Amino acid sequence: MNIKSFLLGSAAALLAVSGARAAVVVAEPEPAEYVKTCDVYGAGYFYIPGTETCLRIGGYIRWDASAGQAGSFDGRRAVDHEDGSINDTWHKKARFNLKTWTGQETELGTLKTYTETRFNYSDGGNSSSLNFAWIQLGGLRVGKDESAFDTFIGYAGNVINDTLVPYGDFDTNVVQYYFDAGNGFSAVISLEEGSGTVGTIDSYVPHVVGGLKYTQGWGAIAGVVAYDANYEEVAGKVRLDVNATDAISLFIMAGYGTDDNLTDATWAIPAGGRGFYKQWGGNWAVWGGGTYKFNEKTAFNLQVSYDEAKEFGLAANVAYKIVPGLTITAEVDWAHNDHDSNGYNWTGIPAGKSSAVGGFLRFQRSF
Length: 367
Fold this sequence. Notes:
Layout: H1 3-22, E1 46-47, E2 54-68, E3 91-106, E4 109-122, E5 125-137, E6 140-146, H2 148-151, E7 171-182, E8 185-192, E9 207-216, E10 219-228, E11 233-243, E12 248-257, H3 264-267, E13 284-293, E14 298-307, E15 311-323, E16 326-337, E17 355-366
C-alpha cells in the first residue's frame, strides 16, 4: 500500500465516523414547570406542581436564656406549653419550629390543613412534640389542636410567661365547627378529648366548648363556656379587646368556674380544685394588659393577673425587631401567692405567702 492509498482510506474512515455521529439525535430538554405563586390564602403560598393545592412552609428558630424562679419556666401559651424547673440557675433552650399550611378550593368549601412540630434542646436534653395537626373543610375541623376555650377567645397578652395565673389547658384532639355569620359575628362549637392525667376524658362523653364573638375595627368582645365531662363542672371566660390608638391595644379577660366536684387531691396542689378548663385558683380570676408600639421596631407588652386564691402574676417585656424576621425580647416576671398551704401552688411558687422573680432573654428568627 502506498502513501496515497493510505491517506485516501483514512479520510474515508473519518467521514464514516463523522456521519455516524451526525446520525445521533439529542433530545430537546423539556420545559421546566416552575413553582407558581398562590396568593389566594395570603403571602408565602405556592402551588404544589401538578396540583391545585397551595402550600406554605414557615416556622422559627429560637434561643431562650432565663433565670430566677418565675422566669425559669415557660408560659403554657401557644408559643410554649411547657413548664420547667424552679432551680436557682440559668436555663437555656434552643428550638426549631416547623409549620406547614395547605389550602385548596372544593365544591364543599376551602380545604385546609395545618401542622406544627417543635424540636427542643433544653438544659442538655432533647425533646420534640407535635403541637398541631388538623384538617378543616369549610367550618369543620378535626385533629390535634388547642382548646377553643383559649384559641377562640384569645391568649392572655403578648408576654412570654402569660400563665402565672393559668387561664385554661391547651392541647387536645377536637371535632370542631366554626361559623362566620358576617358583619363581625362568629361562633364555635368544639367537642374535645382533653389531655393529661386527669384532663383526658374517661368515658364516651366529650368535653364541650362553645363561644361567640363580635369583631370590629375598634376591637372585639367574646365569650366562651366549657363543660368538663370528667367532673361535670362548667367554666367560662369573657374578654374585651380595644384598639385605643394605632399604637396602643388593651385587653381585659375574666373567668369563672364551678368546683363542686373538684378537690385539692385531684391535682395534689392547694388553693382549690382545678379541672381541664378552670385551672385558676378559686372560682374567679382576671387578666389584663396591653401592648404599646413605640415605633415599627419596638413594642412594650404588659400582663397582670389575679385569682380568688390570692395568686398574683405580673409580666412585662420589651420586644425589639433588629431586622425583619429577627426579634429580641427581654422580659421580667413576678409571681406571688398570699395563701397559707402546704406544697406548691400551680405556678410552682413555694406555698405560704411567698414570691418569685425571674426573667427571659429571647432571640427568635421567624421565616
